Amino acid sequence: MLNIVLFGPPGAGKGTQSAKLIEQYGLIHLSTGDIFRANIKGGTELGTLAKQYIDNGQLVPDEVTIGMLSNEVKKNVDAKGFIFDGFPRTQAQAKALDNLLESMQTEITLMLALEVAEDELRKRLLLRGKDSGRADDQDPAVIQKRIDVYNAETMPVKDYYTTQRKYRGIDGIGEIETIFKALCEAIDGSGIGN
Ligand code: AMP
After folding, report:
1. What's the distance, CA 148 to chain centroid?
2. Beta carbons of 81 and 4 less than 8 angstroms apart
3. Mutational pocket test of ligand 1: of 54, 63, 68, 93, the residue with most ligand atoms within 8 Å of the beta carbon
4. Which of 7, 30, 89 is the pocket-test mutation for ligand 1 (most atoms within 8 Å of CB)?
5. What is the atom index within ligand 1 of the atom nearest the CA of 57?
6. I need a surface site. Which of 13, 39, 155, 169 has the fewest CB within 10 A?
7. Ligand 1 centre and the CA of 33: distance in Å?
8. How far apart are CA 84 and CA 79, in angstroms?
9. DSSP β-bridge partners for residue 167
10. In Å, how far are 33, 35, 109 from 49, measured between CA atoms?
11. DSSP state of 116
12. Where along the chain do its domains lie?
């Protein structure tokens, strides 16, 4: 299996690049943010719980997020592989993901990290908020909170994959196609998924 963690701060372009990567490599796209938003829309219990955190720019608790992600992976055991978008966001989530994949006799192939400076992120998120309808993209205080949470809680996940020699940084500023090409080169260089 080809299992990619697409990493990066909010607004780095993970959703855009995931859409292109799943088409190129035939993978299942699992975005925890998208799944939470679908639950909020559907009025589920999980959605009600997650909304309180999302609206404040905080992380949904690990236990809830890991449980939800595990269910989604188990629904797709026959997949060629996965793109994990927005997950893992804590070291506990990274460990849980390793355990889950190990139980399926597979593992994370690479963590591809889109690197974008903070000023650019703030600009992109406010712009996205104008037509995405996402409340968390429309409030500068919530945007800043999400960037702060990323730096404090999510950045350590980079160390987790660096230790495993799976981390690859990719410049996330520039043309969508140029960034996509760089991501594909990193994947093709891994020797898995061809
Ligand atoms: P995203 O669409 O990835 O920007 O996620 C939107 C929001 O969903 C985040 O600000 C968090 O509140 C929540 N969320 C998404 N993924 C996770 C995760 N892996 N762990 C905890 N919270 C998450």
Report:
1. 16
2. yes
3. 54
4. 89
5. 10
6. 155
7. 5
8. 13
9. 111
10. 13, 13, 32
11. -
12. 2-189
Residues in the chain: 194
- Please give the structure tokens belonging to residue 39: 């639950």
Determine contact, residues 160/94, Cβ cutoff 8 Å.
Answer: yes
Contact 87, 65 (CB under 8 A): yes
Question: Which residues does ligand 1 sit against, CB inside 6 Å?
Answer: 10, 32-33, 36, 53-54, 57-60, 65, 86-87, 89, 93, 146
Helix ranges (DSSP H) in 104-175? 118-132, 140-149, 156-163
pLDDT digit of tens for each residue in the chain (194 aa)?
A: 999 999 999 999 999 999 999 999 999 999 999 999 999 999 999 999 999 999 999 999 999 999 999 999 999 989 999 999 999 999 999 999 999 999 999 999 999 999 999 999 999 999 999 988 888 999 999 999 999 999 999 999 999 999 999 999 999 999 999 999 999 999 998 877 55
The gap from C-alpha 23 to its chain's centroid, in whole angstroms, comes to: 17
